[in-house]
């Protein structure tokens, strides 16, 4: 098979793309799953989690930021890349405090779902166990940064969709952390609302709507029903139709 | 008495522009000592930006403080070359004399002492910063004197001028450093070439960027000129943060008019009327002389409207200060910082030549590259291309430091052999040379016949010499700590990976590492190289990999023989419990020596 004007080759299979589309969006629409956490087609590409690392014509690239172009040969499912992704997931687990069995996002969490999908058996590295306070000051939303993976989806949603800029990423390196735009720095003193887009984009359990955590029982949740690789491509294909 | 809010109001209102946020914070801190929550709020409301915007900037830059740091903030430069000159003993000595722990503020709020990344004084270390002032050639006696001055509450302006003396140490001068220069001559030569003519000379010169990457400068300039848009910018990257590099400091000290003229020539060729020089915070001492130089050039019609009388050649330059962030040397991070934001590298493409400062086409060039552009203007591209090698035209300035008798600047035509540099700088019994800093390459004697050139050993200029008695494991560990400290935190592999590498090397240094840690280090180094967002992460594992391959005994003598030693020291983990229980008996310990 060869790539035509409007197709790229992903692991030797042709995948069509629209002009301006990224490799990741084209892949998902074409039913090919490339793991990702910081990407959501509704927002500007970000490229920070690096789970979507691929090899394009022999060079490393992030599928979520690189535009698809005719003639590209993209490697996604190779043993090397698979190992890198698993290590990146392990890094995200150990830099925060992720206790899946006690987390109300369990089963709906993309980090957890990707870990299962990537056959990650242990966190592997020494846990950093950072001290991150829980902010329960908001009447309707819980902010638990222990689970934050710094994808900045909430930052982008609040700024670009809600027009509120409630969240920002501050600090540097391992000290990077989400801060809240309010006089006290607490979510309860901000103009954040549970109806905001930013309240519903967190891929992990850092931003949780209160009082609905166990409405859907464990075992019947999104990634309990199908693996993230199938769920994500099915959704992307449906949206594209 | 002038209140804090008056100070903030005065600084903000001079130019209430959010892209000046970093400059405003630096100015506010110079007057107020730190950025209090009240200061942050006042700046946010004065600029009409969310408070988070201010906080994220304050928390990103090492030299901005959101808590009091004492009236005297002393930071010891922690490059490996400072360490080789005994900086850590002096650091400990000062802490002891002032009865402080690292980073702690004295009870009277007077002083804090800490470490900082390389301050660019490797040829005259051990070095430090006191507030914004650079101090060189620290000795035990000088440290004692500083302790007395601090205790006596003597204002830094009253301290002996000797402390702040910074030498150029030019040991070998060639075309750029050695020629007499008539101010304005390069500008007049460029005007004589014409805009297209100047660009043509640049093409002929084959000048390549001196910041390390070696991109052909004329391609960058032409790309910027041809990019759509009405306004363009020229940015001079003087964020010389690569440990071991200090050539740009000397160029800005003694060759500033050539750098500024180089910027104006770039502006002339690409059609930009505004230049920005990004000066690293460690070089704050150069700001006032550089501003004075700009003023003198404006008076001499070498900057401003109709430069040298040429109608339509308008160009002026602003200086922006950095505040302690190595990552801002990356060109897109530097642009973010110029826009008053945390210095995080952008997604590239688009590259700055099309989407740069304020989203406009921007040329970002290294200090030395722009100074070399004046050579091209003066002598023509063909002449310039005649020196050096086929793929690396002209001369290169090396910043030589470490184990040699004559550290300082050495300018050579490209193609010089490593062994020649070593001979000239008075280095003997050399075990290794680290070229281009921690992100560069470590060479051993069997490679000393290699050449400094883009096609062989490329470099941004750092040339650190390590004698036979040096421990290359400690060199690699120093570099790993540097990268973990300087990672911007944007992407997962670099943010977490640099910390994991640092910790693995610390474990080996503790005598608890095994082959397991080595395997992990190699695996991480490869992961970072392949998946990091920018050059910082991609190169962060180079030094560990190089030194493991070339100086294996330095690692092996530290490794335990077993395959693995647990990361958790159970006995140490119980220390707090013993403290609470007030026990120190044998039964309160695990695994005590039999």
Description:
The complex is a heterodimer of chains A (241) and B (594). Chain A contains 6 helices and 10 strands. Chain A is of the alpha+beta class and 241 residues long. In chain A, the strands form 3 sheets. In chain A, strands 2-1-5-3-4 form a 5-stranded mixed β-sheet, sandwiched between helices. Chain A has a 3-stranded antiparallel β-sheet with strand order 6-7-10, with no helix packed on it. In chain A, β8 and β9 form a beta hairpin. Chain B is an alpha/beta fold and 594 residues long. Chain B has 5 domains: 57 residues, no CATH class; 93 residues, 3-Layer(aba) Sandwich (Glutaredoxin); 215 residues, Rossmann fold, CATH 3.40.50.11540; 76 residues, Ubiquitin-like (UB roll), CATH 3.10.20; 84 residues, NADH-ubiquinone oxidoreductase 51kDa subunit, iron-sulphur binding domain (de novo design (two linked rop proteins)). Helix content of chain B is 43%, strand content 12%. Chain B is built from 26 helices and 14 strands. In chain B, a hairpin with a 5-residue loop joins β10 and β11. The mean pLDDT of chain B is 96.
SSE map:
The complex is a heterodimer of chains A (241) and B (594).
Chain A: E1 7-10, E2 13-16, H1 23-29, E3 53-56, E4 59-62, E5 73-75, H2 79-95, H3 110-117, E6 134-135, E7 141-144, H4 153-161, E8 167-170, E9 177-180, E10 207-209, H5 222-225, H6 228-240
Parallel strand pairs in A: 1-5
Antiparallel strand pairs in A: 1-2, 3-4, 3-5, 6-7, 7-10, 8-9
Helix pairs in contact in A: 1-6
Chain B: H1 4-14, H2 21-32, H3 37-47, H4 51-60, E1 72-77, H5 80-84, H6 87-97, E2 111-116, E3 128-130, E4 133-135, H7 140-151, E5 170-172, H8 175-178, H9 185-193, H10 195-205, H11 217-226, E6 233-238, H12 247-254, H13 256-270, E7 274-279, H14 287-299, E8 316-321, H15 331-338, E9 362-366, H16 367-379, H17 381-385, E10 395-402, E11 408-413, H18 418-424, E12 430-435, E13 441-443, E14 462-467, H19 472-486, H20 492-509, H21 515-531, H22 535-539, H23 542-550, H24 552-556, H25 570-573, H26 575-581
Parallel strand pairs in B: 1-2, 5-11, 6-7, 6-9, 7-8, 10-14
Antiparallel strand pairs in B: 1-3, 3-4, 10-11, 12-13, 12-14
Helix pairs in contact in B: 1-2, 1-3, 2-3, 3-4, 6-7, 9-10, 9-13, 9-16, 10-11, 10-13, 12-13, 13-16, 19-20, 19-23, 20-21, 21-23
């Amino acid at each position: 098979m060869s790539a035509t004007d409007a197709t790229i080759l992903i692991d030797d299979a042709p995948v069509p793309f629209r002009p301006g589309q990224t490799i990741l969006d084209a892949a998902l629409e074409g039913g090919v799953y490339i793991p990702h956490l910081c990407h959501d087609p509704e927002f500007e590409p970000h490229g920070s989690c690096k789970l979507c690392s691929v090899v394009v014509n022999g060079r490393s690239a992030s599928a979520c930021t690189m535009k698809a172009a005719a003639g590209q040969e993209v490697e996604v499912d190779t043993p090397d890349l698979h190992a890198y992704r698993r290590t990146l997931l392990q890094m995200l687990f150990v830099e925060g405090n992720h206790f899946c069995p006690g987390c109300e996002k369990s089963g709906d969490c993309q980090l957890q779902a990707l870990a299962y999908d990537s056959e990650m058996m242990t966190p592997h590295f020494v846990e950093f166990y950072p001290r991150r306070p829980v902010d329960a000051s908001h009447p309707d939303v819980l902010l638990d940064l222990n689970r934050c993976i710094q994808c900045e989806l909430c930052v982008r949603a609040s700024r670009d969709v809600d027009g509120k800029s409630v969240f920002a990423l501050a600090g540097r390196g391992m000290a990077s952390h989400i801060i809240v735009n309010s006089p006290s720095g607490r979510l309860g003193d901000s103009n954040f609302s549970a109806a905001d887009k930013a309240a519903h984009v967190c891929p992990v359990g850092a931003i949780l709507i209160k009082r609905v955590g166990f409405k859907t029982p464990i075992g019947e949740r999104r990634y309990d029903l199908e693996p993230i690789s199938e769920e994500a491509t099915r959704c992307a294909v449906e949206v594209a139709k | 008495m002038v209140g804090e809010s008056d100070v903030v109001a005065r600084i903000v209102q001079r130019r209430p522009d959010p892209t000046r946020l970093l400059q405003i914070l630096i100015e506010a801190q110079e007057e107020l000592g730190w950025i209090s929550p009240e200061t942050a709020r006042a700046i946010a409301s004065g600029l009409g930006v969310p408070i988070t915007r201010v906080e994220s900037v304050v928390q990103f830059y090492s030299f901005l403080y959101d808590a009091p740091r004492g009236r005297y903030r002393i930071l010891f430069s922690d490059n490996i070359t400072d360490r080789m000159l005994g900086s850590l003993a002096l650091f400990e000595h000062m802490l002891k004399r002032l009865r402080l722990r690292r980073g702690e503020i004295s009870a009277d709020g007077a002083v804090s002492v800490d470490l900082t990344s390389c301050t660019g004084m490797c040829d005259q270390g051990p070095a430090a910063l006191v507030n914004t002032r650079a101090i060189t050639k620290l000795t035990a006696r000088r440290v004692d004197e500083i302790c007395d001055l601090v205790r006596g509450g003597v204002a830094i302006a009253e301290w002996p001028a000797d402390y702040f003396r910074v030498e150029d140490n030019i040991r070998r001068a060639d075309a750029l450093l050695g020629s007499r220069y008539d101010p304005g001559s390069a500008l007049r030569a460029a005007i004589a070439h014409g805009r297209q003519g100047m660009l043509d000379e640049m093409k002929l010169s084959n000048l390549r960027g001196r910041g390390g990457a070696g991109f052909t400068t004329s391609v960058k300039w032409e790309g910027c000129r041809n990019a759509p848009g009405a306004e363009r910018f020229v940015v001079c990257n003087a964020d010389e943060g690569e440990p071991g590099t200090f050539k740009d400091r000397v160029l800005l000290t003694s060759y500033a008019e050539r750098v500024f003229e180089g910027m104006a020539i770039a502006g002339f060729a690409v059609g930009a009327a505004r230049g920005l020089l990004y000066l690293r915070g460690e070089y704050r001492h150069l700001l006032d002389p550089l501003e004075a130089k700009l003023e003198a050039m404006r008076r001499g019609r070498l900057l401003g409207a109709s430069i040298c009388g040429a109608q339509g050649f308008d160009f002026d330059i602003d200086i922006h200060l950095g505040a302690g962030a190595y990552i801002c040397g990356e060109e897109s991070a530097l642009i973010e910082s110029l826009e008053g934001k945390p210095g995080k590298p952008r997604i590239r493409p688009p590259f700055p030549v099309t989407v740069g400062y304020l989203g406009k086409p921007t040329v970002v060039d290294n200090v030395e590259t722009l100074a070399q552009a004046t050579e091209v203007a003066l002598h023509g591209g063909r002449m310039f291309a005649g020196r050096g090698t086929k793929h690396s035209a002209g001369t290169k300035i090396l910043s030589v430091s470490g184990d040699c008798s004559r550290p300082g600047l050495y300018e050579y035509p490209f193609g010089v052999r490593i062994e020649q540099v070593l001979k000239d700088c008075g280095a003997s019994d050399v075990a290794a040379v680290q070229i281009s800093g921690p992100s560069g390459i470590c060479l051993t004697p069997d490679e000393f016949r290699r050449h400094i050139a883009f096609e062989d050993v490329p470099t941004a200029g750092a040339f650190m010499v390590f004698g036979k008695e040096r421990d290359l494991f400690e060199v690699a560990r120093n570099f790993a700590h540097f990268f973990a400290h300087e990672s911007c935190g944007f992407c997962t592999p670099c943010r977490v990976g640099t910390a994991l590498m640092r910790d693995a090397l610390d474990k080996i240094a503790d005598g608890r590492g095994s082959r397991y840690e080595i395997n992990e280090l190699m695996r991480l180094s490869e992961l970072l190289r392949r998946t990091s967002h920018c050059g910082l992460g991609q190169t962060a594992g180079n030094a560990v990999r190089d030194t493991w391959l070339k100086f294996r005994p330095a690692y092996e003598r530290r490794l335990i023989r077993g395959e693995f030693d647990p990361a958790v020291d159970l006995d140490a983990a119980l220390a707090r419990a013993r403290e609470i229980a007030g026990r120190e008996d044998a039964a309160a310990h695990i695994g005590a020596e039999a």
